[in-house]
Amino acid sequence: MRCTNIRLLVNDYEACFHFYSEILKLPLLRGDENSRYAEFDVDSGTRLAINQREVMAEALETDAADPKLPHQDRLAVIFEVDDVDTTAAKLVADGARQVMEPRDWTAWGIRAAHFRDPDGYLLEINCPLLPVAAV
């Protein structure tokens, strides 16, 4: 697994977008002030991403304000793998708590599965969706 993104799941996307792009002056790689998702270059192989918190809660079919999970979806650590299904099956067999089985997220261009660590933090494993070959 290769850590590709540290994703901050933020409440005030616009303010955070301006902070990272204008105050920290991080080069923007993807997204804009209205997209609810953006990636910034942090001069390493790992990117810093911000995501509107509700977007992730909707995608995982969870409640972003669930008081039973106080750490839920404030941060996600993203790992790229060669095969999401095989890696997810191995993680589950080894005792990892899966919260979303592997599925294609076509809007995001990835196949991903989601897990929680023992403290409730969100982990994602993903791989890029291959473009469909023209026939």
Automatic annotation (TrEMBL):
Gene3D superfamilies: 2,3-Dihydroxybiphenyl 1,2-Dioxygenase, domain 1 (3.10.180.10). The keyword Lipoprotein does not apply. One of its GO terms (molecular function) is lyase activity. Keywords: Dioxygenase, Lyase, Oxidoreductase. InterPro entries: Glyas_Bleomycin-R_OHBP_Dase, Glyas_Fos-R_dOase_dom, VOC_core. It comes from the Bacteria. The keyword Metal-binding does not apply. Residues 2-128 form the VOC domain. PANTHER family: BLR0126 PROTEIN, BLR2520 PROTEIN. This is Catechol 2,3-dioxygenase-like lactoylglutathione lyase family enzyme. It comes from Nocardiopsis sinuspersici.
